[in-house]
Write a sequence for this structure.
């Protein structure tokens, strides 16, 4: 089946696979990803990776080999993207936001809306939380002319997951992404959520109160939500609104950890970024923007060159996109991502 590119997926975790399949779908070029998550203790496809593969394969009627749990090689030959409505079940508390990531770039090739409902974890470890995705990731994508919105039916926390969210991706108008100067800090926004069974303890309110960092600017918005969910859980997001960009810092509630400590963790990360970085985006957004810079062009000042940034740039370059990272292009820590 395979006549396209071969990419080594050993480093960078599932991000390499997601980026490779997204670019394969956008370009129409087949790809084979070998050694999927090869440097992880449990290599190969896990539920959330498999859900992303199958979601893309369904949307573009791809021929796929290796789409099964623990598979370490995936061969993907895409067809044309078919807008419409689809569903995918991660099957665990695996992150719905990581399934969104493979679908978001399709905005640049859509000629009609695409909606995919994903069941799984909405606020879980090692992935963007739902509020982070909606309040940080998507607004930055829109600056590149990539359009999507996320609708929430039900939250899902670890270990049962069971959250249900729908990403609506619409035809975009790609334009160069310019995030080179963050400008002055205008204000802070706080988003805090708790499952219903934590409401008597006012976990979300306590998280939100502790999460506002003292940075000499107003709290522009403080959103506190209680949501039905199959498992108990909570999450908080601090968003810094700069003149030229936004940055987000999340924390998840854990059994035995006071709500105040959860909020303070997010606030401290935000304060540290504001005081010590010159970047326009936070570290987690940085690697996610590599695909947008590849597809739309632009320049982004990153806080650090992480392994995910390096591997994502490698995937983009393997597909012929002229994406570079230059640490000498900015004063102090960080680097300039250009494409």
């Amino acid at each position: 089946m395979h006549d396209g590119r071969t990419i080594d997926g050993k480093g960078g975790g599932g991000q390499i696979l997601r980026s490779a399949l997204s670019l394969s779908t956008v370009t129409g070029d087949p790809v084979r990803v070998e050694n999927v998550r090869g440097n992880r203790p449990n290599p190969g496809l896990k539920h959330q990776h498999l859900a992303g593969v199958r979601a893309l394969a369904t949307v573009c009627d791809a021929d796929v080999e290796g789409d099964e749990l623990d598979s370490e090689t995936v061969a993907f030959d895409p067809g044309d993207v078919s807008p419409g409505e689809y569903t995918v079940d991660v099957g665990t508390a695996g992150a719905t936001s990581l399934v969104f990531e493979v679908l978001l770039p399709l905005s640049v090739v859509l000629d009609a809306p695409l909606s995919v409902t994903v069941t799984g974890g909405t606020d879980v470890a090692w992935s963007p939380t739902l509020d982070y995705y909606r309040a940080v990731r998507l607004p930055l994508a829109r600056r590149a002319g990539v359009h999507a919105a996320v609708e929430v039916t039900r939250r899902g926390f670890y270990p049962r997951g069971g959250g249900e969210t729908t990403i609506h991706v619409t035809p975009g108008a790609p334009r160069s992404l310019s995030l080179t100067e963050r400008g002055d800090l205008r204000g802070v926004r706080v988003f805090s959520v708790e499952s219903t069974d934590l409401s008597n303890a006012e976990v979300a309110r306590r998280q939100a109160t502790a999460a506002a960092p003292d940075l000499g600017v107003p709290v522009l918005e403080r959103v506190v939500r209680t949501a039905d969910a199959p498992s108990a859980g909570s999450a908080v997001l601090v968003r810094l609104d700069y003149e030229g960009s936004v940055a987000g810092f999340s924390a998840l509630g854990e059994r035995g950890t006071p709500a105040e400590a959860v909020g303070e963790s997010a606030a401290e990360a935000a304060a540290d970024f504001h005081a010590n970085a010159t970047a326009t985006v936070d570290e987690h957004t940085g690697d996610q923007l590599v695909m947008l810079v590849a597809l739309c062009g632009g320049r982004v000042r990153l806080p650090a060159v992480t392994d995910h940034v390096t591997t994502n740039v490698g995937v983009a370059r393997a597909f012929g996109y002229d994406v570079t990272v230059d640490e000498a292009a900015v004063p102090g820590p960080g680097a300039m991502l250009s494409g």
Summary: The chain has a mean pLDDT of 95. Residues 287 and 309 are 4 Å apart (CA to CA). Residues 5-174+281-338 form a domain with the UDP-n-acetylglucosamine1-carboxyvinyl-transferase; Chain fold (CATH 3.65.10.20). The chain is about 30% helix and 30% strand.
